[in-house]
Amino acid sequence: MNQAYRFIKTRDAVMRGIFLLCAAFSVLALGCITLFLLANGLPFIGRVGLTNFFGTTWHLSSGAYGILSMFVASIYVAGLSTGMGVALGLFTAIALYKFCPKLAVPPIRQLINLLAAIPSVIYGLFGMIIIVPFLRDHVSPGGVGYGILAASLVLSIMILPTIVSISLDALNSVPRNYYEGALALGATSEQSVFRVMLPAAKSGVLAAIVLSMGRAVGETMAVIMVIGGSPVMPTSLFQSVRTMTANIAMGATELSGDSATALVATGAVLFVFALLLNVSFSMLSGGEERGKKRTQKTGA
Hints:
This protein has helices spanning 2-48, 50-53, 68-99, 105-114, 120-139, 148-158, 160-173, 176-184, 189-200, 202-218, 221-227, 244-251, 258-299; strands spanning 58-59, 64-65. By secondary structure, it is mainly α. The chain has a domain at 67-258: MetI-like fold, CATH 1.10.3720. Strand 1 (58-59) and strand 2 (64-65) form a beta hairpin. Helix 1 packs across helix 13 (258-299), helix 7 runs antiparallel to helix 10 and helix 10 runs antiparallel to helix 13 (258-299). The termini are far apart. 31% of the residues are buried.
């Protein structure tokens, strides 16, 4: 008996050590990436000046390192793709939650999750062959298919698994008596879902939005293949532009010296932008939880 207890105790200690090591490795990796980006990017930004670095002209041979046009293009693409993806993904999650036959939910959910397993280059190829020609021939007023809208459509498909999966899990985590209580008060099934269940799952939906926006901001290969690649300020949805991730990928293997350091500084800006997204979500979630606690105390 004592031998079995010692074995269990030793096994638990080993597993705790392994988990602690994994957690420490994650923190160490994040710290190394942060240190590398900031240590190389911030001095470069200080050397060339904020006005130059956040200017609108990117011309390496003349020492112009302006990333403002690419920063704006990244925001446009991330915002538009997230808006389209959230609208489609959230309604899909709601349909699977309450308005779809129960037997059909598992296979449909698995098919949606399979979208996450498709390599991004396949999405880019699909965009080049299908979406870009369609936009060029039937939608674009100037006959240009490449641009922000093409990239946003491709990304909205790519982020669907994240939105659907997290939103559906959030809806399923809401106690069912919320729904039954709304029905008992005379609400219809649609009203119970949209006015009771969905607000109760708000934190999960917000998590889905932030994670999908992070995916849209960080996506590279698919965006490069359908957005065009011109480092100019975006003025139209049908215009060849360049995002920050595309800019880094297009020059990472060819540039050196200050040009390569400019890409590292671009990565530092992208890192800070993604960090602000996560901090904003944490603040929203924290505010919502504090509001719930105050409401419960008041009701008590």
